[in-house]
Amino acid sequence: MPEAPLGGAAALPSPVRPRAALDALLLRGGLWVAAAVLAVGLVLPLATLLLRAFEDQAGQFVGLANFAAYVTTPALLGAAWNSAWTAALTTLVVVPTAFLYAYALTRSCMPLKGLFRAIMLIPVLAPSLLPALALIYLFGNQGMLRGLLMGESIYGPIGIVIAQCFYCFPHAAIILAVALSTTDARLYEAAEALRAGRLRIFATVTLPGARYGLVSAAVVVFTLVVTDFGIPKVIGGQFPVLATDVYKQVVGLQDFNMGAVVGIVLLLPAVGAFLLDRWAQGKRAATLSGRAVAYVPRPRRGRDLPLLGLCLGVAAVLVGILAIAVWGSLIRFWPYTLSLTLDNYDFARFDATGWDSLLVSVRMAALAALLGSVLVFCTAWLLERGTPPSRLGGAVRFAATLPLAVPGLVLGLAFILFFNHPANPLGFVYGTLAILVLNCVVHFYTVAHLTAVTAIRQLDPEFEAVSASLKVPAWVTFGRVTVPICLPAILDIAVYLFVNTMTTVSAVIFLYGPDTKPASVAVVHMDEAGQASAAAAMAVCILGVTLSAKLLQVATGGLVERATQRWRRRV
Amino acid sequence: MLRRMLVLALSLALAPLAAEAQQRTRLTVYTALENEQLQPLKQAAEAALRDIEIAWVRDSTGVITARLVAERQNPRADVIWGLSVFSLLQMEGLDMLEPYTPRGAEALRPNFRSDRSPMTWTGMDAFVSAICFNTVVAQQRNLPRPTTWADLLNPAFRGQIVMPNPNSSGTGFLTIAGWMGSMGEQPAWDFMTRLHENVQVYTHSGSAPCNNAARGEYGLGISLDMRAVTLKNQGAPIEIIVPTDGVGFDMEGTAIVRGTRNLDAAKKLADWAVSRAAMELYGRWYAVLALPGVQPAVRGYPSEFEQRLVNQDFRSIAARRDQILRDWAARFDGKSAPRN
User: Which pLDDT score, from 0 to 100, does residue A110 have?
Assistant: First the structure.
């Protein structure tokens, strides 16, 4: 899942290889390390999961019996249908809204664009549980705006769809903003010269230009909704969906085989969406030629004012939901004693791990960011520049794009089945911080990998060629030239890994041990026990950490820029 | 410069890992106790047994039971402390408990300890199902005050009742076991089928229904006495109702997991779990304790409930626990959608 898309890959220049034999051997060794990590963290667990779906509880091969049992259980099939239609409905709401928002950001002259861009990112920084908890305060049976539902209950599809809209909005808006910003102004000039009306220009130039972006956005939103676990868990009531079914089978009934079957069912739409998105990306890359002229919007009140209104409305909803969650976490006893207190932040009263879970999360996220960005960036460089194209390289490249199609719950389940297998010598990592870090790095690998590849491909391969002819080992060039130049991209990767590891629930909920319960899992547990205020408080703490990380990135961004990027500017 | 920063960051991130190395024996303790009990019990036990450290793994009864059963080839728990006796008896049947009679266990009430010798489990306290009735919501929605389980079938309660899912929650299971004990098995299923019409949601945990009722999300939650008393003492507008037509009850107990690598330390903890000091601690939350003569400190318990406990055969219900839960799931769990 692209939890926060960063960008796509650019065109491929031909790589230049270092010459010294020892050098090449070492670099190839590095590639083997990357291959081993991806094998242990992705390929082998998924293979175990696939095998388990065809076994019974005792480990005997039973063919398709589990799938037959799945198809004949009406409740499970119903859940698949529920997942599909809530995802479709969310997509129908989010994509048009996000399109208009992105349109306003890229094609209008409204004021405060920077602010709107920043606000749009809020949901990315919060765990998906946060909007669901906020909705209870707004539309629950004691909610402030309960009347708006006209007697319907928020616990069920209505709550799921509203919360998913909040959670998915930035993902769609980012993709669409990128799609809309790469347009050719000459097309508009031509259309105007032909005296086409505004609506006609919109329908014949703007929309077709963004059509692959629209496909990508729709696919991403649909998959996010189908595979998200936090929102239906909190606000789904008795409304079963695929993601909560996996959890119920595995955690509630400890039926790993049926869990594996549901996991595979969950994998299908995600893989389908992944293939569709790849197709759309390939098409999109070809839409802009080298001679394109950047489109610069001119002010026009009839367009700018309504768009400003829309953006204000959307931003108000995003900030409002966040504010409700913060306020809810500060209330003494909802809804009867509305005085404010910090009691709900005394987590030891609600959950055995207390504040420790937040420390676990921060440590886990810091390690994932640190080790993950080193692994991702070195691997990307080895693939692009360090080693000649090889079958191993091809396999690593494929494995690096695969995690995007694997939902977190499925990856988490695959991890338990693989690492907890009695015959696995790696079983000792089960329940440790190490397995959580490995899981998170693999889970969010693809987007980080694509960012690294894009950054590296912007560098001229001449650097490696020149240093090779000067007999400087390739890794020296890597350390002295490539890394400093790409530092902003590496920082992006690190923050991306940090934020997503802090907020993810789906994979880690199967993997934590007695001392390694992450804060996001604590939110789920406190909500399960009916402690909504404490759950909201913990979700707010997570948001506080991710927001600080993001602000730190912005603050240090200038420093890094000055230290490493000054050469880009012409003096 | 960059390298120095990396080294610094790495050592900062890894430092807490290194500091965790300890001399004490770490016991992994699986429990379904309520969250606020964990910290005080851990502190008291670690203070009394200086060379033991407790690492809790807590979840609802059904989840912990399923996890223990699933892990029985390769057990990860050393001790079970605070789990429903239905689950303990089921595990005794699977030969998963290490026989050991803790020091002082003979002093416990006879029905609060294993009848085997050596014992397989020892009791801590008992708790009952209770109804949390939100008086504010009742006034708004004109709900009559129920006094019996049968009163809950009144159509006025439609969509206003929350109850724990017995597959995950021990409270949910003891409640339906109580109905089976007092009504008989078939009438109990009929009762649940009719009650299902009024139930809005089946929650994961046993305390969630009372928490929800206390917040007015629903009018009435079927929950456990301890949660109800705690919330009422906190000022929630709820009334605790112990139905007059018999309530189910459950005991929580302690056991050593067969196959533990820390048997000596586990035995010490099992000894402490039946000590007077431990019982006094349990008495901070529960009114019925395994050791006679310990005065519970908890306030606000409805005084009449001890006479209303149904007479139930723990062993026979424990033997059928899996079957009852499967039947329940087939009847009620799959039905989707909040009906309103």
Answer: 93
Residue pair A184/A292 in contact (Cβ under 8 Å)? The answer is: yes
Nearest to B334 among A74, A337, A530 (CB): A74
Phi, then psi, of A94 in degrees rounded to 5: -75, -45
Inspect the interface and report whether the beta carbons of A336 and B66 lie closer than 8 Å. Answer: no
Contact B70 A256 (CB under 8 A): yes
The CATH number of the domain holding residue B134 is 3.40.190.10
- How far does B205 lie from chain A, in Å, by closest CA? 5
Tell me, yes or no, whether A405 and A356 share the same domain: yes
Q: Judge contact between B220 and B152, C-beta under 8 A.
A: yes
- pLDDT-derived band at A2 (thresholds 50, 70, 90) equals very low
Tokens for A255, please give them: 């039926």
Reading the block at residue A137, the tokens are 């305060």
Q: What is the pTM of this model?
A: 0.87
Expressed as residue numbers, the domain containing A175 is 73-334
Q: Give me the residue from B39, B55, B207 closest to A348, CB to CB.
A: B39
**Residue A387, min C-alpha distance to chain B (Å):** 24
Boundary-marking domain end, from A334, A363, A391: A334
Q: Which structure tokens are listed for A562?
A: 């000055």
Which of these three, A272, A302, A334, is where a domain ends? Answer: A334
CA–CA gap between residue A146 and residue A152 (Å, rounded): 9
What's the rounded Cα separation, in Å, for the pair A172 and A36? 34
Does the distance separating the beta carbons of B235 and A333 come in below 8 Å?
Answer: yes
CA distance B217 to chain A (A): 5
Q: Cβ contacts of residue A493 below 8 Å, gap of 6+? A: A6, A372, A373, A376, A377, A448, A451, A452
CA dihedral of residues A308, A314, A320, A326 (deg, nearest 10): -120
β-strand partners of A294: A184
**Contact B338/A at CB under 8 A:** yes
Q: What is the pLDDT of residues A507-548, one digit of tens each?
A: 898 888 888 999 999 999 999 888 889 999 999 999 999 999
Residue reference for tokens 């799938």: A67
B 50-69 near A (Cβ less than 8 A): 55-60, 62-63, 66-67, 69
Chain A contacts of B20, Cβ < 8 Å? 515
Task: Using alpha carbons, select from A200, A188, A400 the residue that is nearest to residue A297.
Answer: A188
H or E stretch including A175?
A: helix A157-181
Contact A514 B36 (CB under 8 A): no
Q: Which of A322, A326, A325, A319 is nearest to A115 (CA)?
A: A319
pLDDT tens column, A469-500: 888 888 888 998 899 989 999 999 999 999 99
Give me the pLDDT at residue A108, please: 92
What is the biggest distance separating any 2 CA atoms in chain A, rounded to whole angstroms?
77
Domain span at residue B169 reads 127-247+303-333
In this predicted structure, which of A261-275, A340-354, A480-494, B306-320 has the lowest mean pLDDT?
A: B306-320
Which of A514, A528, A531 lies at the smallest CB-CB distance from B56? A514
Q: Do B2 and A251 touch (CB under 8 A)?
A: no
Neighbours of A299 (CB within 10 A): 9
Q: How many contacts, defined by CB atoms under 8 Å, are there between A and B?
A: 134
HEC letters along B175-210: HHHHHHHHHCHHHHHHHHHHHHCCEEEEECCCCHHH
- 3-state SS class at A77: helix
Q: Which of A141, A152, A338, A361 to mutate to test binding with chain B, by most B CBs within 10 Å of its CB?
A: A141
> What is the DSSP-derived secondary structure letter of residue A459?
S
pLDDT at A7 (0 to 100): 41
